[in-house]
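# nightly structure sweep
# worker-07 picked up a monomer target from the shared queue
# config: single-sequence mode, recycle default, output format = structure tokens
# input follows
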Amino acid sequence: METPRSNNIKGRLFVISGPSGVGKGTLVRELCHCFPDIRVSISVTTRLPREGEREGSAYFFRTEEQFRGMIQRSELLEYAQFVNGCFYGTPRAFVEEMLAEGHDVILEIDVKGAMQIKEHWPQGVFVFILPPSLEELENRLRHRKTESEEAIQQRVSIADQEMAYIPQFDYLVTNDDLKTAVDKLAAILVAERCRVKGKKEKTDGSQLITR
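# output follows
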């Protein structure tokens, strides 16, 4: 899909966030089919590569010592340590390079990570993906058959808390029907590409739902 671009040569950072199980990954994959020129941010991780994973394709693989060094040098836009002990983060250099080349970049991330990104890159475009209801989210998580009932209830509880961050986002898209949700995301991307004036950067130059 060809879309009009503004006179701004630099690309834009689109942050797609929302609760676990809401379908962020599927939406991003479909959006990339519509916009083959867009780039998806590649995360840095301290976990070992799995069979078939290549450096710079699935992830950038680093040791924990290297990762902590990146934190100290402010080379990550956001990072977190997961329950398995492994660290994951978004490399600033990769994102800045893609944007400087004029590519729009999509970052698919959880809500806490999105709020970290907003601190470092407030001029990004932040989109919250909402489930039709918490009951439907629970059904989707259960349908995956990858987690215990206790883990599912914990994720639903966390999702309920994450709704409080919706006012911090620029756009809200409910993932009820996949095609409709993708169409809305595409419309957001086109609208932002047509924007005459971008969101203001920091002066220092650093770059309701019911059951």
